[in-house]
Amino acid sequence: MKTALERETPASKLAHLQTHPQNTMSKYSIQSAAVVGSGTMGGGIAALLATIGIPVKLFDIAPRELDPKEEKAGLTLESRKVRNRIVESNMAALKKQRPPSVFSKADLELITPMNLEDDFAELGKVDWIIEVIVENLKIKQSFFEKLEGVISDSTIVTSNTSGLPLTAIAEGRSDGFRSRFLGTHFFNPPRYLKLLELIPTADTDPELIEFFKGFGATGLGKGVVVAKDTPNFIGNRIGVAVGGFDLRYALENGYTVEEVDAIAGPAMGRPKTASFRLNDLVGVDIMYHVAQNAIAALPDDPDAGASEGPAKELMDAMMERKWLGNKTGVGFYKKVMNKGKKEFHVLNLETMEHEAPTNPKFDAIKAARKASRTVGGRIKALTASDDKAGKFAWNSTAFAMSYSARRVPEIADEIAAIDNAMKWGFSHEMGPFEIW
Prior knowledge:
The protein is an alpha/beta fold. It has 21 helices and 11 strands.
């Protein structure tokens, strides 16, 4: 049975949103939006907004050259179809996403494709602009410099950066711009992962922060966590460090990709994507760049990213091969057809070859499931085991707990913020302090 929201049309959803209490109690209001960057994350955010009835203008760059199909059709670089090719292509992919990025295909009618050369002035006609472009500080700064010339003095501007300093991104902008600017970091896929990290700067209007707390929770249905403007914020700071530890531990102690994912999944209160499948889902390149940001920005925190050694060499090799995960069809796992059936072959971390799955099983995991029906009891039983699964579970859990403890109050003032970020952003059933 569909929910009341699913049964609504885009127009009726917008009418409902416009009369929502959070829009009548603040000088800020969001009735329209623009998302700049139409890739997986940008498209997902646009779809999320369209789902609740907000009209969205979705932007991307205009191509610099024709593709073979366009040449054959006699099109030119001035053709609107060509100039919107990138955003239109990403919208087509959005429509095919599984799980679906919207409640109903009708919601996509609220998304209008545009490009950043012909339609830049349209950015000045919306209430909220979300920047989701490449993780490069200079590129972002250049974009916002140009953007400030077309927006009004009431436009809300946010960045979905995964970890670049918001203060640095807004450097050089006017006082008014900076007062209406903050980070709104969604996790992928935006419709399904609950976490929304708000990252204000020292210049962000406190009323805007309060507005987004309400809008994020009641308008977007998110679990909102306020993070400090530190590298990688909360979720990625902890998540990337734990993922990096798991990779290093696997390489140093002879664990396979399948073994790690068999252990670091539901048995430890984490989702089925576990560790390596999560990298493929999010994007090996995304995880790589977030780790590189941490390495550059946090020289005194060697655990923030794998800066050298076998783990760094492995990730470098995957980037060179463009093994970026699900988006390229090959990463730690590779989808292949075997006698008409789909299989996921697994990367051998020693040979760098993808091999047929072996589906490893561990007695300690079976015993932990029998020992307790609660997540905490299961983790306690598993980490107490002395077999290969228990050793990995204990070392990964101990690292997550101790690393999280060392990050307070650097990244957050409250331990609940860290626990919620890991639960809402990474679908962990318990946060590190709850496990502790």
